[in-house]
Amino acid sequence: MKKFALLLIPLTAALAVMAYVFLADGPDAPSETAQAPEWEDSSSLPLAEPPGGDGPTSVVMAAPERSASATPTANRRQLERESEIKGDLTMFSMTHGEIGYVDVDSVLQDRNPYSVIALLKEHKELTGADESLEIEIVSAGENENWGHEVTFVQLIDGQPAGKRGKVFFSSSGAVTWMRGQILDTQALSPTNMVVLSAEAEAIAREAAVDFAKTLPVLPEWRGKIPWDYEVYPAVLVYELDAENKLVRFWRVGVSIYGPVEGAAARIWISPETGEVSDVTSGVSYASSNGPTF
Question: How far is residue 293's CA from residue 282's CA, in Å, rounded to a whole number?
Answer without folding.
Answer: 7
